[in-house]
Amino acid sequence: MASKLETVMADAPSSAKLPSDPLNADARNADAKVMALIGFAHGVSHFFHLVVAPLFFWLGRDFSLSNAQLGLLMSGFFIVSGIGQFFAGFVVDKFGARRVLFFGLSCFFIAALGLANAQNAAMLMIFTCLAGLGNSVFHPVDYAVLNARVSAARIGYAYSVHGITGNIGWAAAPVVLAGMATNFGWRAAFYSAALIALSAIILIFINRHLVDDKIIAAINVAKTTAAATVITSSAMPKESSFAFMRLPAVWICMTFLFVTTMAMGAMQSFGGPALQALYSAPQWIAVGAVTIYMLAGAIGLIAGGYLVSNLKRGAGPETIIAVALGFASVCALVVASGAIPVALLPLAIATIGLAAGIAGPSRDMLIRSVTPKGATGRVYGVVYSGLDAGLAVAPFVFGVMMDQKQYGRLFVGMAIALLAALSLSLLVSAYAKRQAKLSALGS
């Protein structure tokens, strides 16, 4: 049995082997490189979330498209991404994260080139959906690599970096794309997006050994096999690849992602116009509302990564989630009341974003706690399809409120979604603790 472990370790490249001491300098450097590489890829994926939205003005003018038709492009992106993400995890677990990551980035590159050369609305939709297909792989890939390659002592920080880079990608897209379109035209803007995707492909290829989750999985399996000297292979029936779907926690986590993303989608889609109508707020506050929210969220992710990595004995990530989302929901209700002085609106919006950001790393840690070994890609693929579903549904739901001039209800809806997420996190935590007790009794 032990010889199998020795064989796997001997065949593994030195860069893939697990450090014996996760606290030493080599382990820290390896973890930092993996975090940076996956973080950059995640930032690119979030950049492509908005690959068409900042160019709506130019696309609408040149192709004579209505706002509803332009909105369908975004719906197409997230519908394809959501469906694709549901299945992408199975592909990651079977073929490894590295191959699937190259596929996703290649889809981005081809989609951006196609959009740059689009001649009609149909071409815009086809290549936007191709970008959505590329986007579908990133959460299963990212979490498969991070969970396999980052030391347990730093996994909370890894989730924090992962979330921050996503926010950076969102923030960068409007600046880069609208800036390029203003100065060089919308086709040049899409070409710049293609260059960003190409740079990611090159960077990942150069450092491809850092995103190989399969060799780590092989080492872990060999260790388990070497330790299981009493149990014979015939006594260990192989579970179906779909066995994890029987776990209630998986679907609760998916719903958690859906409702939290609904809240974020409300702010991203209509937060600025709602504030301007509800408070007669100056344009700089209305236009900057989403930016303020996202920047505060990035700061919250940093704080959340530290908090979840330094939890006191007996506390769990659900504690951070409950406090953060509870506070965010109260702030959203206060904003909905219309009673805040206009000068304090940026602070109120920043507070909601900060609290939501703090909950992010704890959310990922909670999902990790209920993920069966060997099913990371599948679980994260299914769970994070809730994110795409939320981003696809939110514009329609909150758009109806805006059409009915129910501006305060948008923030009430945010508060309800955040409270629902809080409740779901407690359910997941209770499930995880119950399973841990059953495992302890069984052993």
Which regions have little confidence, pLDDT < 50, spanning 5+ residues?
1-20, 217-237
Helix content: over 70%
Number of DSSP E strands: 0
Element order: H for helix, E for strand: HHHHHHHHHHHHHHHH
- The number of helices is 16
Structural class by sheet pairing and helices: mainly alpha
On the 0-100 scale, what is the average pLDDT? 82
Distance between the termini: 22 Å
Can you offer a commentary on this structure?
- It is a single chain.
- By secondary structure, this protein is an all-alpha fold.
- 80% of the residues lie in helices and 0% in strands.
- The chain is built from 16 helices and no strands.
- It has helices spanning 2-11, 25-49, 56-63, 67-95, 97-116, 121-135, 138-149, 155-184, 186-206, 213-227, 248-279, 283-309, 317-336, 345-369, 376-403, 407-442.
- It is globular, with a radius of gyration of 22 Å.
- Residues 1-20 and 217-237 have low confidence and may be disordered.
